[in-house]
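Exercise: predict the fold of this chain.
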Amino acid sequence: MPRGKRRAASDNSNDEERSNSKRRNTNSSRRSARVEETQSFNNKKSLAWFREYTTADETDIIGPDGIERFCEDIGVEPENVLMLIIAFKMQARRMGFFTKEEWLKGFGDLHCDSIQKLQSKFDYLRSLLNDPNTFKAIYRYAYDFARDKDQRSMDLDTAKAMLQLLLGRTWSLYIYFSQFLEQSKYKVINKDQWCNILEFSKTISIDLSNYDVDGAWPVMLDEFVEWLREYRAKTTKS
């Protein structure tokens, strides 16, 4: 090939490489900008978002009405487990209320200062339930979060709702335990019972064969095992 043509071909090749490199850099910059936008957090923007759900009388706390509007805006039912996880990330102290400090802490940790950013974290928040240690922390948190702060124990209706939310999908004996609670003498559940229900759900087999009646289980769970065995015996006979 003549020398001049080789130079021309080489120049064209260099131009193409520079063009491709420029496009790669541009695409990389755009991706970096999107990642940075997703991960960045603006405290003032988050505070302005918080104010959308407060009232003129109470500017530093979101009450039940504000929580309901917040749920509508993010497209999540108040009873959805996502709301419990969000409250857990905030370490909110009262169900149905978010303080300014709780909001800024929780959403600061999540790098969320808008509805869109929070919605983009839904899959991540749900995934926290799959980590045993985090799930245990959320489960324990739910007790103090949901109970009436004037009472040391959780009323039975609230406890059943929380158990359905946290164990209803994964504990195969949950439906029986729920029936047991319905007809039992119990009106409240204390924290020791609450924590042991989780341990029971994780360690006791469906056929109850590894349940030790002489173990350190609460009386409630002894009674549940006895009830379920009798229930199964009656069902088998009929």
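Check your answer against the key: The first strand starts at residue 61 and ends at 62.
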